[in-house]
Structures are given as structure tokens and as C-alpha cells.
Specification:
By secondary structure, the chain is α/β, with parallel strands linked by helices. Helices cover 41% and strands 12% of the residues. Helix 3 links the parallel strand 4 (94-97) and strand 5.
Length: 348
């Protein structure tokens, strides 16, 4: 139940737009991650041969070391040599690049910026240039809405100027620029997918913390918040990534994706509670006081994300690729809640 095959994989709408045939090789970086796990399983179920990258062969998921459905694990990371890159990319038709440095690191600001750049920008460029040398046709890059900014007064579109506000977003934007330069000079088709917050089975970070708080029944001071946030369920993002692999029309395009229904922070909390079968408790605290408390406890950025709006307009991918999210927000939250109850809740 956790990893469903997206309904639109069988859509006849793609009949005249598919060049990547079943059985062709797709390299997925970050294949053991939150998004990568779901993506590789859906690609296999759709008939593709998948090479999943790992940093350490001993960390290969035990149950998948010899997958009967066309999954091969390969060692590849930002420290790989040119020869290793060449070997891993041999015979690959499409690269889906998910691997990235995401987490905030301790240390000096300049060191943090350098590390984000080294992994998210420089490594992406190296991988793309090696892909060109090996004749890879398409390179699908998992970017972030943070390229557009941290908050929005109106839904972001692909035509808006990039305005990343912190090192992670800057590094993803620089990677996009590097890929655009490579594509302009070589025959590599680049597809960029920018997503907002992703949730679903296996989610971590702030979304997992919110699930844990709701599960404990802790009252939350967000009743007065009237923001709007775009999210995307893991299954919807995987579906969009697969569509960007299969459809000729995606070549050279950048797409913003979301579930298509934006929610406020209090609405999200209530719906998470409903998915978990629990009552939620919200109480009113003026937003200026929330912000002040966030500064006092060193959680200013977390509070900003909870009270500010960040919306995306996903109409471009819907119009150009006929893509529509196969799962609703409530379906996505239900799947996430099922996973949480089965694997996490008893540990809380």
C-alpha cells in the first residue's frame, strides 16, 4: 500500500510523446533516500531497468541486493573519479539526479556555503558533463522551490526571477544554471523539477516532528495563522518525475509541481490529526508573539515557515505534459499516517 503505481503511468495520452522505452537504463542518484526509494520501486514496476547509486556497498538494502526486476546497485558519489563515473554511466539513457546536501550544518557560514556548493552545484555539473560524454539522452534534475524564494505573496511560476535566500537554495539555483549552460552546448536534454515540501511514507525533518507532536496531543499556538502552503505528496512527485522521463515535451523545461491544493498551517494540523484518528488542539497566539518566541528559542526560520505563505502554480506541467497529481492531499496524508502508525508512533 505504501508504494503505489501511479494511475497515469498507463495513460494513453502519452502515446505520441514517449521515446524512452521500457527496458532502457535509468540511473537514479539518491536512490536510498526518501524520494529515491519510492521512485526506484515505481520505475521497476513500470518496466525500466534501474541503477541506484549508493556511497557504500555495505549499505545496500539487504532485501534488494539481488532484485529480480532490473535493479542494480552502483557505487557513485561526489568523490567518485572520472573513471568511476564513466563506468557507472555506460549504457544509461536517462539520469534522475536526486542526491543532494539538504541538512543545515554547523560551522562558519562560508564553510556551509562551500559544502552546499561542492555537493549540490559542482557535483551536479560533473555528473552532467560525464553523462554527455557517455551519450546519456536526458538528465532530470530534482531542484527546489527554494530557488524561487522562502515565501510568496502570490503563487510562484517558472517565469519568476530566481531569488534564493539561503545557501541550499543558492546551490540548487547555481546547479540549474550550470545545467542550462551544458544543455546549450551539448545534446543533453535537461528537465528541472522544483518542488515544495515533500511528505509521505518515510518523511523526516520538520514534517515528522509535526506528526509526532500531533500524535502526542500537544496543543499548538497556530489558530490565528491564515497562510497558504503548497505541498507535494511523495507519490505525486514520483509520478511527475516519471512523466518528465517519458515525455518528449519535457526536454529543456523547468516545472513547478505541487498537489494542487494549498493548505494553511492550522488546516494541515487538523487534517493530520484526522488522518491519525486523533483530536487536535489549536489555541490563538498573535503572530508577532510567535515570531518573538521563535527568535528567543533559536527557531526563527521554523516559525517563519509555519506562519508565512509559500505557494506554487503548477499549471505549466499540467498544460504541457497533461500531468495531474494521481493522489489528493487527503490520500497522501492518509498514506503518511498509515506509515507513521506502523513504524514510528510506538517509539514516540
Amino acid at each position: 500500500k505504501v508504494f503505489l503505481i501511479p494511475k497515469c503511468l498507463n495513460s494513453t495520452r502519452l502515446t505520441w510523446h514517449v521515446r524512452v522505452k521500457m527496458g532502457q537504463q535509468i540511473l537514479v542518484t539518491g536512490a536510498t533516500g526518501f524520494i529515491g526509494r519510492a521512485l526506484r520501486l515505481n520505475l521497476l514496476r513500470a518496466g525500466y531497468e534501474v541503477r541506484g547509486t549508493i556511497r557504500n556497498p555495505s549499505k545496500t538494502p539487504l532485501q534488494e541486493r539481488s532484485h529480480p526486476g532490473g535493479l542494480n546497485w552502483v557505487v557513485l558519489h561526489d568523490q567518485s573519479t572520472a573513471a568511476e563515473l564513466q563506468q557507472v554511466l555506460k549504457g544509461v539513457h536517462v539520469v534522475i539526479h536526486l542526491a543532494a546536501r539538504v541538512h543545515v550544518m554547523a560551522g562558519h557560514e562560508s564553510d556551509r556555503r562551500h559544502e552546499f556548493y561542492r555537493v549540490n552545484t559542482d557535483w551536479t555539473e560533473r555528473l552532467a558533463r560525464a553523462a554527455v560524454a557517455q551519450g546519456v539522452r536526458r538528465f532530470v534534475y530534482m531542484s527546489s522551490i527554494k530557488v524561487n524564494g522562502e515565501k510568496s505573496s502570490a503563487p510562484f511560476t517558472e517565469e519568476d526571477f530566481a531569488s534564493p535566500q539561503e545557501p541550499y537554495g543558492v546551490s540548487k539555483w547555481e546547479a540549474e544554471r550550470a545545467l542550462a549552460m551544458i544543455s546549450s552546448q551539448k545534446s543533453l536534454e535537461i528537465v528541472v523539477i522544483r518542488s515544495p515540501l515533500v511528505y509521505g511514507p518515510g518523511v523526516g525533518g520538520n514534517f515528522l516532528q509535526l506528526l509526532q507532536i500531533v500524535q502526542k496531543g500537544i496543543p499548538l499556538p497556530f489558530a490565528l495563522v491564515e497562510n497558504r502552503r503548497s505541498l507535494i505528496y511523495q507519490g505525486n512527485l514520483v509520478d511527475a518525475l516519471i512523466r518528465s522521463v517519458r515525455d518528449d515535451r519535457a526536454a529543456g523545461r523547468t516545472y513547478l509541481v505541487s498537489d494542487g491544493e494549498d493548505v494553511s498551517t492550522p488546516d494541515l494540523i487538523r487534517r493530520l490529526g484526522a488522518a491519525l484518528g486523533l483530536r487536535t488542539h489549536l489555541w490563538p497566539l498573535p503572530i508577532p508573539i510567535l515570531r518573538s518566541l521563535g527568535q528567543v528559542v533559536g527557531k526563527q526560520m521554523v516559525v517563519e515557515r509555519l506562519v508565512e505563505s509559500l505557494q506554487v502554480n503548477p499549471s505549466k506541467i499540467r498544460q504541457e505534459l497533461d500531468w495531474h497529481p494521481p493522489f489528493s492531499v487527503d490520500q497522501g496524508l492518509a498514506e503518511t499516517a498509515d506509515w507513521f502508525r506502523a513504524t514510528i508512533a510506538n517509539r514516540v
